[in-house]
Amino acid sequence: MSELSVNHLLGIKYLNLDDINLIFETADHFKEVINRPIKKVPSLRDITIANLFFENSTRTRLSFELAEKRLSADVINFSAASSSVKKGETLIDTVNNILSMKVDMVVMRHPNPGAGVFLSKHVEASIVNAGDGAHEHPTQALLDSYSIRERLGEVQDKKIVIVGDILHSRVALSNIFALKMQGAEVKVCGPKTLIPKYIQDLGVTVETNLKKALEWCDVANMLRVQNERMEISYFPSTREYTQQFGVTKKILESLDKEIVIMHPGPINRGVEITSDVADSSQAIILDQVQNGVAVRMAVIYLLASKIKR
């Protein structure tokens, strides 16, 4: 059996193309499993996984938990809001206390960039980064690429535009790494204030006109504006943002081709996309959610197979 080149999933930038292809092949298998009447496999009966969420999350946490349970792993859920972290306990102490309960893998979301890398150097467990600040969100990028591959046949040579708050988005950065590695062309589009200065160093181009970006692309991945990460105002008003960067049915119908619409969620309906776009046949948003479980099953399974030996 082929195996991953890494012992942790800390970010897309630590993976290679063979890793991504292996994750996708494994996800294909698990996608078939979760569409069966009995949706569980006994693959990880002897593995214990702790989900540590130091930031609020609904979809990612539920998706990981479902993936773990579908693989028959034992699951511990930890929410920082109701924990000793509030009393001043350090990250390493918190995790070591959990690991002393014989936990094999930690799935962690943390507000600080690099928290997963830091942890991987100090604890004896496989770490899966479920989002670290505005840095990376590797499983989201994997499920996004997987969903593009499913809809369009392959990712290579496809034109993908990521629209919205690029500056604060871990989804954008992980997607750029994953898409470029698979040979896609990537543009980013949004207000200049929400596009990082270094972004062109990553081999992507910038387009500030939404209509031009949509005319160019095969896929538009719409990101929400992350107000919770903003200490200052980056644009005059939500209404003005929507007028310039919101995707409506009218805009899509004015294009000379049909493009695929994606969104990592949660959607601010009426801001970055209207409801009739989100619910249309061009949108693969619910496919992304379903694929998220299969891709996370694949990641967990492949990392766990390296622990067992």
TrEMBL record:
Which biological processes are named by the entry's GO terms? 'de novo' pyrimidine nucleobase biosynthetic process; 'de novo' UMP biosynthetic process; amino acid metabolic process
Q: Transferase as a keyword?
A: yes
**Record pathway:** Pyrimidine metabolism; UMP biosynthesis via de novo pathway; (S)-dihydroorotate from bicarbonate: step 2/3
Q: Which UniProt keywords apply?
A: Pyrimidine biosynthesis, Transferase
**Where is coiled-coil annotated?**
none
Query: Broadest EC class?
Result: transferase
Q: Which reaction does it catalyse?
A: carbamoyl phosphate + L-aspartate = N-carbamoyl-L-aspartate + phosphate + H(+)
Q: Quick one: which residues bind carbamoyl phosphate?
A: 59-60, 109, 137, 140, 265-266
This entry's Enzyme Commission designation comes to 2.1.3.2
Among its keywords, does the record have Transferase?
yes
**Aspartate/ornithine carbamoyltransferase carbamoyl-P binding domain mapped to chain residues:** 8-150
> Which GO molecular function terms does the record list?
amino acid binding; aspartate carbamoyltransferase activity
Residues passing through the membrane, by range: none
Which residues are involved in binding L-aspartate? 87, 170, 224
- Tell me the ranges covered by the Aspartate/ornithine carbamoyltransferase Asp/Orn-binding domain, including all copies: 157-302
Write down the PROSITE patterns for this protein, in alphabetical order.
CARBAMOYLTRANSFERASE
Q: Which Gene3D superfamilies match?
A: Aspartate/ornithine carbamoyltransferase
The protein's assembly and partners? Heterododecamer (2C3:3R2) of six catalytic PyrB chains organized as two trimers (C3), and six regulatory PyrI chains organized as three dimers (R2).
Identify its protein family.
Answer: Belongs to the aspartate/ornithine carbamoyltransferase superfamily. ATCase family.
Purpose of the protein = Catalyzes the condensation of carbamoyl phosphate and aspartate to form carbamoyl aspartate and inorganic phosphate, the committed step in the de novo pyrimidine nucleotide biosynthesis pathway.
Protein name, entry field: Aspartate carbamoyltransferase
Say which species the protein is native to. Answer: Aquimarina algicola
